[in-house]
Amino acid sequence: MTSHSWAAFHTAEPAFADTVRTRFEKYRHHVLATLRKDGSPRVTGLEVIFREGELWFGMMTGSLKARDLQRDPRFALHANPGPDDSMDGGDVKISGRAVEVTDEGRLAAFSAAIGHPLPFHLFRAELSDVVRTFVEGEEMVVRSWRPGAGVVTRRRD
């Protein structure tokens, strides 16, 4: 599975990346899917951080989702749909691999920058798929991006 950093995605497709980031920043809590030890899915809440040109996940030390990602880094992240049925800004999903930051100096600097004390797990997202689904006029529009493929737009009546 080919993956890219958030920065590489933003460089390749800045308008699409900005739209996706805006959608994630609209609400604080989102839904993360990871894989349990037995391969079944685990879905949990998560806050995301866009910082230094990257997409980051911070988690409590020893949390089940952190242990899932340490064992198998594949994830899917779904943006909070909002308080009603409007889906304002569309439905946004990101899939990829989570790369854990273990360097103590890097963790300390990140902790200081965000004002959250250590200890915590910190993962940087490597993207393999970004999808935004929204309604435009009478059409449903699905816009997706994969590394090396660029943005593909499909429309349905």
Structure commentary:
The structure is a single chain. This protein has helices spanning 6-12, 14-25, 64-71, 104-114; strands spanning 4-5, 29-35, 41-51, 54-59, 74-78, 91-101, 121-136, 139-146, 150-156. A hairpin with a 5-residue loop joins strand 2 (29-35) and strand 3 (41-51). It is globular and about 50 Å long. It is 24% helix and 46% strand. It is an alpha+beta fold and 157 residues long. The model has no long low-confidence stretch (mean pLDDT 94). The longest helix is centred in the first third of the chain and has 12 residues, at 14-25. The chain is built from four helices and nine strands, in the order E-H-H-E-E-E-H-E-E-H-E-E-E. It has a six-stranded antiparallel barrel, surrounded by four helices.
Structure keywords:
globular, 4 helices, alpha+beta, 6-stranded antiparallel barrel, single chain, 46% strand, 157 residues
- Please, how many helices? 4
* Elements, N to C (H/E): EHHEEEHEEHEEE
Structural class assignment: alpha+beta
- Our Rg estimate from Cα atoms comes to 16 Å
Main sheet characteristics: 6 strands, antiparallel, barrel
Q: Determine the fraction of residues in helical runs and give it as a percent range.
A: 10-25%
Strand order of the largest sheet: 2-3-4-7-6-5
**What proportion of the residues form beta strands (DSSP E)?**
over 45%
Characterize the overall form.
globular
Count of distinct strands: 9
- Mean pLDDT, to the nearest integer, reads 94
Low-confidence stretches: none
End-to-end separation: 32 Å
